[in-house]
Amino acid sequence: APILAGLAQALSRGDVKVVDLTQTLSEDTPLLVLPEPFGQTAAFSRQEISRYDDRGVAWHWNNFTVGEHTGTHFDAPVHWVSGRDLPDNTVDAVPAANFVAPVVVLDFSRECAADPDFLLTAEHLKAWEAANGPIPAGSWVLFRSDWSKRDVDAYTNRREDGAHTPGPATDAIEYLIARDVLGFGVETIGTDAGQAHLLTPAYPAHTLLHGAGRYGLQCLQNLDQLPATGAVLVCPPLKIRGGSGSPLRVLALVEA
Amino acid sequence: APILAGLAQALSRGDVKVVDLTQTLSEDTPLLVLPEPFGQTAAFSRQEISRYDDRGVAWHWNNFTVGEHTGTHFDAPVHWVSGRDLPDNTVDAVPAANFVAPVVVLDFSRECAADPDFLLTAEHLKAWEAANGPIPAGSWVLFRSDWSKRDVDAYTNRREDGAHTPGPATDAIEYLIARDVLGFGVETIGTDAGQAHLLTPAYPAHTLLHGAGRYGLQCLQNLDQLPATGAVLVCPPLKIRGGSGSPLRVLALVEA
Ligand SMILES: Nc1ccccc1C(=O)C(=O)O
Ligand SMILES: Nc1ccccc1C(=O)C(=O)O
């Protein structure tokens, strides 16, 4: 078994490192807030069952409540109406092979620092490919904005007219689907820009990715620890029956 | 980057397969039931936020409630009083490298079919090692009982005097800790046997593994798709701040 034996040895020697791309999930996890009268995703909350006490003499454990789309989370195609009737469109039905795959990281952190409403376009992707090679079919694509380094108010960046956070333009998403990527991941709260309700179609990442059976990842961090190409993403959502998404632990395998 | 490029190629060619070891998480997921007056882990339940309707015109999503130890789940050392004061004893603090590691699978399904109270002993482990080679330090160890193939009543196997399900004897856990394994995973509802309150110490897997800073995995399935040695386990719990455990998706990478 040469591949996996080599991987195991590289992991034990530290030649391959495991990088955690996940925000901590807690009562303080920032949330998407939609305008009235739409329903809202739940903040993380927990109920203690026992803590080495008369409710459980030797053990500590909790129950918790959370949204399928709270914190670092996975979006399945059924999350959007465009993906409603696709096969294998829920987190329990997505093929497991899609949870372990090559990843490319697009660093547009400089542009996002200059403009919180920065839109990643197909032109940007072509320029990135000219420098880094083509985005491979079957890979995950992560958009590095350095947004995860912001404190919570600057992270959500909400104003009177909604959130001002970077995201993809419609033609960038069309380009990625044509490249046959598995999914698109971001550091911000949505795969779409904060002002993406103004784009055509509204919410192009959600509408087009999920309509094409592709996936989303949100609220990632530590993308600055990944190379542009060559890492492997590990992003297995909970196996919720019929689930539209789920909080998850996202890891990357990175060669030293 | 030879290791990860080779892994990516093997995954895309199907030379390495991703096997899902996770039970589906739903309102029907079987639960541990403790005697009165102890607190109980919550069944999975969900609250619909919207389904392409006036609560969310283009999107479907849910909130959900679940126990940290409901369904296929990870046990961190803080879950047991013996691990209460250890460093990095919660799911958010466990080093990420421990979530991607070699795995050995101990097939005692025949013995478990013959005796639902089968106890895996150090003698069994020595016999297994004589046939398969030593259990490597830094690996996960999974106990195949074929319990996951049972229907729900035979799976929980509750009688007047409690559950009758297989698990490890005290000396097996001592032996695995001496081998310096990362953790121990099972198909049944607990890492301990159903009658483990009668052992010395009570609940030896929980008491000794967590006291030694090791981890547990429960409610696994598809262990019959894994080789005895040579696979790599992927078992990243949710990054719950201070969490004692969490439901998770467990995958294995298996060479074809
Ligand atoms: N943008 C949205 C609009 C409505 C519902 C959810 C979203 C998300 O971003 C999400 O998936 O977290
Ligand atoms: N055996 C137990 C006794 C008390 C609390 C939890 C357990 C578990 O098995 C668990 O971790 O699911």
Automatic annotation (TrEMBL), chains A, B:
InterPro entries the UniProt entry points to: KFase/CYL, KFase_sf
SUPFAM superfamilies tied to this protein: Putative cyclase
KW Cell division (keyword) present: no
Gene Ontology molecular function terms on file: hydrolase activity
EC number assigned by the record: 3.5.-.-
Hydrolase keyword on record: yes
Pfam families for the chain: Cyclase
Keywords: Hydrolase
Superkingdom as given in the UniProt entry: Bacteria
Name used for this protein in its record: Cyclase family protein
